[in-house]
Amino acid sequence: MKTNQELKELVKLKYSEIALQDKESNQASCCGAGGCSAEVYNIMSEDYTELQGYTADADLGLGCGLPTQFAQIKKGDVVIDLGSGAGNDCFIARAEAGETGKIIGIDFTEAMINKARENADKLGYNNVEFRLGDIENMPVTANKADVVVSNCVLNLVPDKDAVIKDIYRVLKPGGHFSISDIVLTGTLPEKIRSAAEMYAGCVAGAIQKDEYLGLIEKNGFSNITVQKEKPIIIPNDILSNYLSADEITEFKGGNGAIVSVTVYAEKTEIKACCEPGCC
């Protein structure tokens, strides 16, 4: 059993490699890892191409949702993107926040940060920046962001509770997040859950949906809403790397559902007290 630090190093190594892969390889696999499928194309991600701000050079095909579509970003907002990769979600967020907004992408993979900065330079954006750091301990001051977004990243972090705590810290009172992620509504076979490669591929690191939503509530967020949910189907030719034919049949006929969810939640605004004697 790998330690949390070993898992993080595994993900960092894999995503350094993914930064150099083409989009087609990433989309035909599980978040760029776990082997490619010849059965289906675009296992996890959705079509970004019609969204304003979409940048083909920044689209690595790694997402599992469209959080920016649901994030209610307004002109002038400060937006933080967790696990910003090559920058695509940041550039889409900038289209919403405008030139008066501020977009901060955070990623712990140096290769991704370099790729994102190159893309921002080519686009000439001076209000989009990328910072190297862990999303459990962001290089951002408290009460900074109006909106936090993330696309298929929290499932890769062993300590999800720490990430949610830090999201609460960096959001302004009254701010909110919209996060797309992979969760479970059943039981994964142990061979998949223990496979390091499948951890880097977004699946083995997923937790139960109820537990995921519970962590958000426990950390003080309110108005928690599942904005979108869709099943994730892992093709047989990927599963066969880990399971026998009988085990694949059992898994697909059982209760091991893997789903992509987009979750919204708010950091409750602390209102000034104006009643006599209440402060």
TrEMBL record:
Enzyme Commission code(s) on record: 2.1.1.137
Keyword terms, alphabetized: Methyltransferase, S-adenosyl-L-methionine, Transferase
Gene Ontology molecular functions: arsenite methyltransferase activity
SUPFAM superfamilies, alphabetized: S-adenosyl-L-methionine-dependent methyltransferases
BP GO annotations: methylation
Catalytic activity from the UniProt record: arsenic triglutathione + [thioredoxin]-dithiol + S-adenosyl-L-methionine + 2 H2O = methylarsonous acid + [thioredoxin]-disulfide + 3 glutathione + S-adenosyl-L-homocysteine + H(+); arsenic triglutathione + 2 [thioredoxin]-dithiol + 2 S-adenosyl-L-methionine + H2O = dimethylarsinous acid + 2 [thioredoxin]-disulfide + 3 glutathione + 2 S-adenosyl-L-homocysteine + 2 H(+); arsenic triglutathione + 3 [thioredoxin]-dithiol + 3 S-adenosyl-L-methionine = trimethylarsine + 3 [thioredoxin]-disulfide + 3 glutathione + 3 S-adenosyl-L-homocysteine + 3 H(+)
Pfam families in the record: Methyltransf_31
Protein name (database record): Arsenite methyltransferase
Methyltransferase domain boundaries: 73-220
Entry-linked Gene3D superfamilies: Vaccinia Virus protein VP39 (3.40.50.150)
EC supergroup of this enzyme: transferase
Family, as annotated: Belongs to the methyltransferase superfamily. Arsenite methyltransferase family.
